[in-house]
Amino acid sequence: MRIESIEWDDANLEHATRHGVSADKIDQAISNPTKVARNKRARAASHLLLGRTRGGRPILVAIAYDEPSSTVRPITAWEAT
Question: Where are the chain's structural domains?
Answer without folding.
Answer: 5-79
